[in-house]
Amino acid sequence: MGLAFILDRLTGVIGLNVESIGVRSVERAVEERRRATGDDSIIHYARRVADDDEEFDQLVERLLVPESWFFRDVEPFRHLRHYLTYEWHPTHPHATLRLLSVGCASGEEPYSLAMTIMEAGIPHELFAIDAIDLCQAALARAREGRYGAMSFRGEDLSFRDRYFQRQGDRYQLAENVRQRVRFQRANLLGEQLPGIHGPYDVIFCRNLLIYLVPEAKRRALTTLSSLMRADGLLFVGHADPSPGQHFSCRGAAAFVHQLGSPKPSQSTPARRPVPSSTTRSRAAWRQLTTTSKASTLRQVPGPTPSPPSSSSPPRNGRGLAEAEQLANAGEIPQAVAACEKYLFQAPRDADAHYLLGILRTALDCDDLAEASFQQAVILNEHHYEAIVNLALLADRRGDLDVARELRERAERERNELRKASEQP
Ligand SMILES: C[S@@+](CC[C@H](N)C(=O)[O-])C[C@H]1O[C@@H](n2cnc3c(N)ncnc32)[C@H](O)[C@@H]1O
């Protein structure tokens, strides 16, 4: 019994993927707690962690990352406001909207939700927000509602004038916002979530799943789906793993998902509709390269994206065919969902990553698009189209040296493809 036991317990109880914070951080926290308890060896401390839940909680407290700020990432809150104004409120004028913020840290997220809902014109008595976290210290700060500069990191801070009162170097949140949020300590991976009862119309669980081992992520998503209304929305963070096959993407830019299969939504129109095509083939969706934003970027010298032949072998995955069809019909968010679902089954399909990159480009998610193109190139280093798109994105970012290297690489790939196609 020693560090390995402690790591196992952390993974079993809170789902912690030790690599997400680094084994060294865990070792440091364990050492700090061992000294604080006066245990003379790690074996003794591990025994204490096994028997004493309070000490285990102290250790967990030391390992959590309760980092947050108001209106973090902006887009999810914009998406929510749009959804509430144009979909939810008109169809539920007298119902109470229920929201849950999971991993709420020091409260910036649920309070941002409260402000978003108030600005969507929903009266106080018609919404309620529950917020849970494991970290006691963060919850204490959340309940207090007093924040320093680090909680205000966005460009538009006009909300601070509307909802906060300055007190020295801190800002006190208005009482009418504080009252809309009920904080609870709860472990998302626990058997039960005391005081938390679904169904919720909207759940935010952002920047938490990233810290979990895959098995814990699955358990967490099962719990979240059981807490959601059938047509509810789940928002995750952009760095979080995709919620997987039981959810469909409804707005890629906001990382918002719905249970079940995708359905067209008026509130999330594809920002760059793709011309429809009657041909359902790889070639058909490859035309996206020339219709997506990437191709409307500043013209760069180098290869024209029309390789003589495919750089990856064709595959016949039904899921990907569905994604291609949706893409060609201009149903971009639905195509993203189908593509992500397909990748869940076939994570090594370079062409599917490439398609996801094109779709994400069409949705203006350049960072994510780049990650997808990179994944395509990792899986197939000769993926000409993915390399061309990486060059275009690097060029757009102003990374001119990288862009030039990528274009040269694409040129080499194009020559190879041409030679291969000329061989009898
Ligand atoms: C990085 S913060 C994210 C805060 C906020 N959601 C945001 O995106 O700004 C992650 C939060 O998840 C909490 N957390 C981690 N594991 C948890 C678990 N098993 N149950 C509940 N909360 C957890 C941490 O304490 C931390 O406050």
From TrEMBL:
Name the coiled-coil region(s).
393-423
Which EC main class describes this enzyme?
A: transferase
For this protein, the record's InterPro entries field holds: Bact_Chemotaxis_MeTrfase (IPR050903), CheR_C (IPR022642), CheR_MeTrfase (IPR000780), SAM-dependent_MTases_sf (IPR029063), TPR-like_helical_dom_sf (IPR011990)
**What ranges does the record list as Pro residues composition bias?**
302-311
Q: Carries keyword Metal-binding? A: no
Tree of life domain: Bacteria
Q: What is its EC number?
A: 2.1.1.-
- Where's the CheR-type methyltransferase domain? 15-240
Where is this chain compositionally biased, Low complexity type?
Answer: 267-282
Cite the residue spans of the region called Disordered.
Answer: 259-320
Pfam families noted in UniProt? CheR
Q: Where is the composition biased (Polar residues)?
A: 287-298
A GO molecular function annotation here is: S-adenosylmethionine-dependent methyltransferase activity
GO BP term, example: methylation
The record's keywords, sorted A to Z, are: Coiled coil, Methyltransferase, S-adenosyl-L-methionine, Transferase
Matches recorded under SMART domains: MeTrc
Q: Which Gene3D superfamilies match?
A: Tetratricopeptide repeat domain, Vaccinia Virus protein VP39
**Protein's name in the database:** Putative biofilm formation methyltransferase WspC
What is the native source organism of this protein? Kolteria novifilia
Q: Taxonomic lineage per UniProt?
A: Bacteria, Pseudomonadati, Planctomycetota, Planctomycetia, Kolteriales
Its gene name is wspC
